[in-house]
């Protein structure tokens, strides 16, 4: 039986802001860029009382909570805090799988420390986070990732919750199906049409019927409803793709995209140099004012080996965007995909020697 922790920082970005600026403590804080199209990156618990949530348009947050203090995100500080927290995790186990800057799965079946239980490890990790970063975290403790993630939400903020193997069935049965990852609004509607509202209802359905209705996701539903999740905690997930994108204040025509593409290429290039792997495919992503997403990609014979090459390819991909004249774009992105291990003969040198401006 495995012991999995899901550790989730509480209102992470907003908490970092409140920690670093005492004036913000006790106040509704919304981390978001200013601008008509910006979305909320994080909201403090004081702001959540007004209904403000992550990913909601910033203008909506402003309407819900006009007295909120809006702070632009500062990822340098968030990353520094995230690194400190990750180092704390690594004292207890090497099996750490970060999901984002503020949450991670840990497999503590065979921990490096000698605490008597996974619960005690979670308590210690949360204590160390509090002491060393002045931030709070919540934890879920369970036999697998799926259950640990649900559990970490149960006593938020600054709490933890254990789902023991023998409690799994009783715990899951009364939960709404939306608690199962992958069950969004649309899937919820489909399940509801079959009379399935709760995880317990889902258990009445045999595997083949769920598969008939939902394909391979049906099999996953069948397993999750029974609390089964065999996915291992995977440390150091290899990089698959890296990208940077930007939403414009006002929609722009194709011929005005170049400066933004150049700027995004710099970001993507810098980020790609932090990995040990090499991206082979250059991707240009566009979203039209009608919200149509277009991607164009090119895989050159040899992987792009300089910022200039990456930029040139990204710019050249614009020529392959065949949209009616007058089409406007609200978003552009530049990415590198198809990451592979660095091949023999492709030394760090050749890759890192591009002119340093
Ligand atoms: Mg969080």
Automatic annotation (TrEMBL):
Q: Which SUPFAM superfamilies match?
A: DNA/RNA polymerases (SSF56672), Lesion bypass DNA polymerase (Y-family), little finger domain (SSF100879)
Per its UniProt entry, which superkingdom is the organism in?
Bacteria
Q: What is its EC number?
A: 2.7.7.7
One Pfam short name:
IMS_C
- The positions flagged as active site in the entry are 103
UniProt subunit comment = Monomer.
Please give the name of this protein.
Answer: DNA polymerase IV
Q: What's the source species for this entry?
A: Pseudoxanthomonas sacheonensis
Quote the gene name from the UniProt entry.
dinB
